[in-house]
Amino acid sequence: MLLGLQLETRFLKDDFADMVPTAVAADGIVLIAWEHEDIPAIANLILGNSTTVPQQWPGQRFDIVWVFDRQGSGWSFSQVPQLLLSGDSSQPI
């Protein structure tokens, strides 16, 4: 790999409940790339609740990144608009 990054590819589409503990236990920055309809459920597992993030990911949104930062023993959540292409929205989901 050009960047020298290690990819973890053993988790299948429906294995996100098994993937999350591995991701949050990793050192450093982790990028989770998944199908958009499962992203709220992944976020809920990371945060330990179903009230912090929107529970539906709009099918037409490909222009935003959800960011989770460690805050003590928990996590903070933010939405970062990419604003890379014409038509990208600056609004969170």
Average residue-wise pLDDT: 93
What strand line-up does the widest sheet have? 1-2
Order of helices and strands: HHEE
Number of H- or I-type helical stretches: 2
Describe the structure in your own words.
The protein is built from two helices and two strands, in the order ααββ. The protein has 93 residues and is of the alpha+beta class. It has one domain (13-81). A two-stranded antiparallel sheet has the order 1-2. β1 (64-71) and β2 (74-81) form a beta hairpin. α1 (16-25) packs across α2 (39-47). The longest helix has 10 residues, at 16-25. The model has no long low-confidence stretch (mean pLDDT 93).
Topology:
Elements: H1 16-25, H2 39-47, E1 64-71, E2 74-81
Antiparallel strand pairs: 1-2
Helix pairs in contact: 1-2
Quickly describe the structure.
By secondary structure, the protein is of the alpha+beta class.
Tag the structure with descriptive keywords.
2 strands; single chain; globular
